[in-house]
Amino acid sequence: MNISVNPKQDTFHLYNHEVSYIMTVLPNGQLGQLYFGRRVHEREDYSYLLESKPRPMSSCVFDTDKCFSMEHIRQEYAVFGTTDFRMPAVEILQDNGSRISELLFHDYRIENGKPKLPGLPATYTEDESEAQTLIIGLEDPLTRIRLELFYTIFEKGGIIARSARFINNGKEDVHLNTAMSLCMDLPDSDYDWIQFSGAWARERYPKTRHLEQGIQSVGSMRGHSSHNHNPFVILKRPSADEFQGEAIGFSLIYSGNFLAQAEVDAYDTTRFLMGIHPAGFDWKLSAGTSFQTPEAVMVYTDQGLNCLSQTFHRLYQKRLARGYWRDRERPILINNWEATYFDFNEEKILSIARRAKECGVELFVLDDGWFGQRNGEHAGLGDWFVNREKLPDGIAGLSEKIEEMGMMFGLWFEPEMVNMDSDLYREHPDWIIQTPGRRSSHGRFQYVLDFSRKEVVDRIYKMMEKILSDAKISYVKWDMNRSITECYSSALPADRQGEVYHRYILGVYDLYERLTSRFPHVLFESCASGGGRFDPGLLYYAPQGWTSDDTDAVERLKIQYGTSYCYPVSSMGSHVSVTPNHQLNRNTPLYTRANVAYFGTFGYELDLNRLTGEELEEVKEQVRFMKKYRRLIQYGTFYRLQSPFENNVAGWMVVSSDRREALVGRYKILNGTNQPFERMYLKGLDEGTKYLVNGNETHYGDELMHCGLVTTDASAGETAPGEKMSCDFDSELYVIEAV
Ligand code: DGJ
């Protein structure tokens, strides 16, 4: 890994074994982009990559030159109004009403490792030798705004992490109306765009289309990254697939409003922008202050989408997630939400916990409904003290009883919200986000606390800190169940209202930071009505997230498959729930529910007392299985093999880093009669190693990968006596062990 700067100090080349990232200072002083892709040789001069051609109808920078127009030049952080007409990375509104900036190269510095981003989640290094950071300083001579562009190259993987910091060295206050984290101009547009979109209970479905001239984008203006779109986009070559070909992944480490956008211009170049959504964003950058954008991560590969995902998995698992639980196998939990909803008392909870303990479950999680007057959706949020009618011995008493059973205890909070029917709201009706003179919309009868205000965050911290320190709590589920509307803070002046969405998220991060530092051994799981804020920003604080409120195994197959494009298995909360399923009314076999949930953090969300004896034995066996294989599953290398979006039979697998162990999941959605013969072609094994498959047959790695694992099931022809009948929603696990 290296960052080389040519002697004239106008070309910068960041490279490691896999990628090169090259940029240059342009003749007008702005910064130009030359190349991002597979590693190329180092040389002093790459100016041949700077194509400036005279083109009709262009506006040009120099009065003696018809060639140099920013409209046709690929840039690093494009500004509007200096001959480029594409969407810019930055827009700064100045005192005289002008929105034109000219950010010219001024200086650079190189740091070993990676500097922290103040108040924001970001990737990090544990040792300075793991990465190097180039910081390029650009300045606008008129406004004296300084922009620092941060580029970190990691030693391993085709990863470049980027962010921008604005410093107002001028005398005037200005307004940042657009301040993207990343601007990436690519030399052509022959890409398929893949976004990860959906809605509540069907999050992160991959959706693909070819780039065309014009703009395509996804984003969120809901105050959270959202169920609807994830802050992650892949641009891949049309011929690339899971196993080969070129692709670039763009991921934003942020949990609030975001925009990811590709603009293809008239000359088939592509500008990719990613950052805080400019709509509704207006940051007053007073003289002498600075503003830091969130971090965006780009990953390049020429080895297909599995390789791209694996690079994100490793980075986000090891150098974004932090703390005690980062590298630890995750406890198998039982959560009472779908078992009881709001209708519980201590006895009911203890009976579920007892049964779970018998089955080998390690953590009991008490969900919504334990506090204030919370007996339904209308009341209680904000009152983070126990409801003694339900739990006479308090959380401390209950957690002790659970611990005495030999299980850990976890608790649900929704810290950012308040019901009007709560003591907190009655005391501080002005603490919610609301616009003076306007109606306040509710979501699930709840209102959003103004986390842009420190005193609000302080108060919630105090309540949570007390509960967490008075009781034996090992896990927190942090939920968030509505989007922000009528966004306005009564604590900020008129010219700072455009800061509220971002300040809100900074408040959320601040509370997370305080709680995770004060309780470093507590495992945090993020949640937002399931996967409404499943993003890298929260992964920094909470190493796992509740992937979706949809617990149906077949639906989950799609959701977890889509989520895996960016996020590691260890981050995906996944539970076995009851049938008929509460979201879909569908019946699936208990083994299929587990076979899907294993590929995540694994747990149960049902009342085990309602299962038959036979089912309980099956659950015990599942728990034993997960304990044996969870290190492999959660920390192995994950491969998508066959997509549930394209096939009736889906498959995925994990392989241990030494390639001596693997686990394959095969899932058949609908059964059929007299079905074709089937094989699944495995990946990541060692060709020369002999493996035992499910304790039966042995095969070399090359056979399993090239001839394929034979998976033809009983629906092909007649079922032999004693053979398991296949059925709808069937599934099979294959344990592969080196002999
Ligand atoms: C939404 C979450 O996603 C559910 O798991 C559950 O915690 C409910 N909220 C509780 O209100």
UniProtKB/TrEMBL annotation:
<dbReference type="InterPro" id="IPR002252">
    <property type="entry name" value="Glyco_hydro_36"/>
</dbReference>
<feature type="binding site">
    <location>
        <begin position="367"/>
        <end position="368"/>
    </location>
    <ligand>
        <name>substrate</name>
    </ligand>
</feature>
<feature type="binding site">
    <location>
        <position position="200"/>
    </location>
    <ligand>
        <name>substrate</name>
    </ligand>
</feature>
<dbReference type="InterPro" id="IPR017853">
    <property type="entry name" value="GH"/>
</dbReference>
<keyword id="KW-0326">Glycosidase</keyword>
<dbReference type="InterPro" id="IPR031704">
    <property type="entry name" value="Glyco_hydro_36_N"/>
</dbReference>
<dbReference type="Pfam" id="PF16874">
    <property type="entry name" value="Glyco_hydro_36C"/>
</dbReference>
<dbReference type="GO" id="GO:0004557">
    <property type="term" value="F:alpha-galactosidase activity"/>
</dbReference>
<feature type="binding site">
    <location>
        <begin position="477"/>
        <end position="481"/>
    </location>
    <ligand>
        <name>substrate</name>
    </ligand>
</feature>
<feature type="binding site">
    <location>
        <position position="444"/>
    </location>
    <ligand>
        <name>substrate</name>
    </ligand>
</feature>
<dbReference type="InterPro" id="IPR038417">
    <property type="entry name" value="Alpga-gal_N_sf"/>
</dbReference>
<protein>
    <recommendedName>
        <fullName>Alpha-galactosidase</fullName>
        <ecNumber>3.2.1.22</ecNumber>
    </recommendedName>
</protein>
<comment type="similarity">
    <text>Belongs to the glycosyl hydrolase.</text>
</comment>
<keyword id="KW-0378">Hydrolase</keyword>
<feature type="active site" description="Proton donor">
    <location>
        <position position="549"/>
    </location>
</feature>
<feature type="binding site">
    <location>
        <position position="549"/>
    </location>
    <ligand>
        <name>substrate</name>
    </ligand>
</feature>
<feature type="domain" description="Glycosyl hydrolase family 36 C-terminal">
    <location>
        <begin position="650"/>
        <end position="735"/>
    </location>
</feature>
<dbReference type="Pfam" id="PF16875">
    <property type="entry name" value="Glyco_hydro_36N"/>
</dbReference>
<dbReference type="InterPro" id="IPR013780">
    <property type="entry name" value="Glyco_hydro_b"/>
</dbReference>
<dbReference type="Pfam" id="PF02065">
    <property type="entry name" value="Melibiase"/>
</dbReference>
<feature type="domain" description="Glycosyl hydrolase family 36 N-terminal">
    <location>
        <begin position="29"/>
        <end position="285"/>
    </location>
</feature>
<dbReference type="InterPro" id="IPR013785">
    <property type="entry name" value="Aldolase_TIM"/>
</dbReference>
<feature type="active site" description="Nucleophile">
    <location>
        <position position="479"/>
    </location>
</feature>
<dbReference type="InterPro" id="IPR050985">
    <property type="entry name" value="Alpha-glycosidase_related"/>
</dbReference>
<dbReference type="InterPro" id="IPR000111">
    <property type="entry name" value="Glyco_hydro_27/36_CS"/>
</dbReference>
<feature type="binding site">
    <location>
        <position position="527"/>
    </location>
    <ligand>
        <name>substrate</name>
    </ligand>
</feature>
<dbReference type="GO" id="GO:0016052">
    <property type="term" value="P:carbohydrate catabolic process"/>
</dbReference>
<dbReference type="InterPro" id="IPR031705">
    <property type="entry name" value="Glyco_hydro_36_C"/>
</dbReference>
